Amino acid sequence: MGTNLPAEVSSMSDDRRLVYSTDGGSPVPQPKRRPTQPSKPQLPNDGILRISRERRRGSTVSLITGLDEPEIESLAKELKKLCGSGGTAKNGIVEIQGDHRDRIVEFFERSGRKIKRAGS
């Protein structure tokens, strides 16, 4: 089977390039994946409460870690009331809005808990 196209048209077909095809063609190379790293190191569960401070979008948050799961919600509510500010309890961490580390340390020392100031 030959083509019945004039010589001018058949020479033009050699200059064309394929724009889209559904036959599979060569696969697109996949980007290399980066190794995943944990976002924050896990603190030891040694029974010692750790109070730290963190800056978030221009404001300060006091973080309390090392609490047992059953007491997190009730202590978060009590600490928010003590400090007179908002906060939350999530992922095993109590967050109190503002820098209230001194007040929180004093609260836990009165109740006889082991406590450490973490960070600066």
Write structural notes for this entry.
With 120 residues, this protein is α+β, with helices and mostly antiparallel strands. Helix content is 27%, strand content 22%. The chain has helices spanning 7-13, 69-83, 101-110; strands at residues 49-56, 59-65, 87-90, 93-97, 115-117. Strands 3-4-2-1-5 form a five-stranded mixed β-sheet, covered by helices on one side. Strand 1 and strand 2 form a beta hairpin. 12% of the residues are buried. The mean pLDDT is 77.
In short:
With 120 residues, this protein is α+β, with helices and mostly antiparallel strands.
Radius of gyration: 32 Å
In sequence order, what are the helices and strands, one letter per element? Answer: HEEHEEHE
Work out the strand percent.
15-25%
Measure the end-to-end span. Answer: 84 Å
Give the beta-strand count: 5
Dominant shape:
elongated
The amount of helix comes to 25-40%
Instruction: Report mean pLDDT, rounded to a whole number.
Output: 77
From the structure above, extract its key features.
alpha+beta; 120 residues; five-stranded mixed beta sheet
Summarize the helices and strands and which ones pair or pack.
Blueprint (H helix, E strand, L loop, with lengths): L6 H7 L35 E8 L2 E7 L3 H15 L3 E4 L2 E5 L3 H10 L4 E3 L3
